């Protein structure tokens, strides 16, 4: 059996200055009433203005080459930006997916035209992407997907549908995984390709899926005879499965798999300190120690990804442990303080608790369920 090794990353001194700059910016945005702290902000906090401001400050596409609008900064600096945004519960969902995984995907597999067209727009915080993987009958068993594209002159005609597509109603494009040759039952992963689909193209319909609260952040997306030009194929035709799987390490290991309910943990700590509640603070200190360990693991994976080391197995492990951690925060809060969760409460603890309770069931589903992740880790550790 193989052991999993994650490097220890020490944050360099320069990141302290960057962190101060981000905190000052966020403080001003909050004090001026321009943004509001929210739990699970990377999926449900949206502001076009805020995304543009982040782009203008060079905080999107930070590690990408300058010639594509990036900042050529380190993955650790990018990590500092993302964790500060999550800790403040800032409205980052617009650009999150494009920054986290579409950019790296295009840098690795995209054509020169795709890089020149999309990357600078993403880095400016003006171009958003959605993830087009899940279908009504293909979630954990993604290889069952049926969306298909058929070759025509100068492009492809796409038919099919996707579901649970976060942010599709705000996004300009989606990377759609579909079949470009019919399914081979003996090799279901073969013949898939990734297409960049313009979500405003004729034949695309986006229907909201509302949460019980009436909130809307994911969707059903239908493709009826949508024309996708040849230039919008990502990487190699038929290699979509392998390309898509490489994206998942970026998707699963970041601080958003640990910090979705951090604003609640922070507020809980403040309340317990104010009440001099030693027993409660003892519980919180256990949470903070776990958070510290998870964060170090996640930082280590950011370094591995920067070095091009395949990290899917450890990323799955961190996602499993991290999402359970963020789910436990509202549960522990309910045991420690007597408050009534209310989404529109003036009281921050009540509001953050309500947001966390409502969003947390999805944490261990989105990006791969707990059971699937554990299967990946078990098989990876035994087979290697
Ligand atoms: C908030 C949220 C946002 C999302 N955003 C997106 C998005 O932007 N784009 C996108 O493409 N998808 C998105 N998803 C979809 C997500 O990826 C799927 O929900 C997930 O992959 C599970 O698929 P499913 O819902 O079809 O459940 P199923 O696959 O039907 O699973 C149901 C249950 O059965 C278990 N199970 C299934 N197969 C096995 C197995 N082999 N062994 C053991 N247990 C198993 C699962 O663990 C789960 O508990 C989102 C989901 C959520 C909750």
UniProtKB/TrEMBL annotation:
Q: Lineage from the top down?
A: Bacteria, Bacillati, Bacillota, Bacilli, Bacillales
Acyl-CoA dehydrogenase/oxidase N-terminal domain ranges (all copies)? 13-126
Question: What cofactors does this protein use?
Answer: FAD
Designated name of the protein? Acyl-CoA dehydrogenase family protein
The record, for InterPro entries, names:
Acyl-CoA_DH_CS, Acyl-CoA_Oxase/DH_mid-dom, Acyl-CoA_Oxase/DH_mid-dom_sf, AcylCoA_DH/ox_N, AcylCoA_DH/ox_N_sf, AcylCoA_DH/oxidase_NM_dom_sf, Mycobact_Acyl-CoA_DH
Q: What is the scientific name of the source organism?
A: Neobacillus rhizophilus
Output the Gene Ontology cellular-component terms.
plasma membrane
Q: Does the keyword Flavoprotein apply?
A: yes
Q: Does the keyword Flavoprotein apply?
A: yes
| Pfam families registered for this protein in UniProt | Acyl-CoA_dh_M (PF02770), Acyl-CoA_dh_N (PF02771)
Return the PROSITE patterns for the record: ACYL_COA_DH_1
* GO molecular function annotation: acyl-CoA dehydrogenase activity; flavin adenine dinucleotide binding
Could you tell me the keywords of this UniProt record? Answer: FAD, Flavoprotein, Oxidoreductase
| Span of domain Acyl-CoA oxidase/dehydrogenase middle | 130-226
Q: Which domain of life is it from?
A: Bacteria
């Amino acid at each position: 059996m193989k052991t999993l090794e994650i490097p220890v990353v020490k944050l360099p001194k320069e990141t302290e200055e960057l962190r101060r700059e981000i905190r000052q910016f966020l403080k001003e945005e909050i004090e001026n009433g321009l943004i509001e702290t929210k739990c699970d902000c990377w999926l449900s906090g949206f502001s076009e203005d805020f995304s543009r401001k982040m782009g203008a400050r060079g905080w999107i596409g930070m590690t990408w080459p300058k010639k594509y609008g990036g900042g050529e900064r380190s993955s650790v600096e990018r990590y500092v930006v993302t964790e500060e945004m999550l800790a403040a519960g800032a409205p980052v969902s617009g650009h999150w997916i494009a920054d986290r995984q579409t950019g790296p995907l295009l840098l690795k597999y995209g054509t020169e035209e795709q890089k020149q067209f999309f990357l600078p727009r993403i880095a400016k915080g003006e171009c958003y992407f959605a993830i087009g993987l899940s279908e009504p009958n293909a979630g954990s068993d993604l290889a069952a997907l049926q969306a298909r594209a058929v070759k025509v002159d100068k492009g492809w005609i796409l038919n099919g549908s996707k579901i649970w597509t976060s942010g599709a109603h705000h996004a300009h494009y989606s990377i759609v995984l579909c079949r470009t040759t019919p399914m081979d039952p003996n090799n279901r992963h073969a013949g898939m390709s990734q297409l960049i689909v313009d979500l405003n193209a004729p034949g695309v319909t986006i229907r909201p899926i509302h949460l019980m609260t009436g909130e809307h952040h994911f969707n059903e997306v239908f493709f009826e005879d949508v024309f996708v030009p040849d230039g919008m194929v990502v990487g190699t035709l038929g290699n979509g499965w392998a390309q898509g799987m490489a994206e998942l390490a970026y998707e699963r290991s970041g601080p958003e798999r640990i910090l979705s309910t951090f604003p609640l943990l922070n507020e809980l700590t403040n309340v317990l300190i104010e009440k001099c509640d030693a027993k409660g603070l003892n519980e919180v200190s256990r949470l903070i120690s776990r958070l510290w360990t998870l964060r170090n693991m996640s930082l280590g994976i950011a370094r591995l990804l920067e070095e091009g080391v395949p990290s899917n197995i450890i990323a799955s492990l961190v996602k499993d442990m991290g999402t359970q951690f963020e789910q436990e925060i509202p549960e522990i809060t309910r045991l420690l303080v007597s408050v009534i969760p209310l989404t529109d409460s003036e009281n921050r603890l009540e509001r953050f608790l309500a947001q966390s309770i409502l969003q947390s069931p999805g944490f261990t589903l989105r990006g791969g369920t707990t059971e699937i992740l554990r299967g990946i880790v078990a098989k990876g550790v035994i087979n290697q």
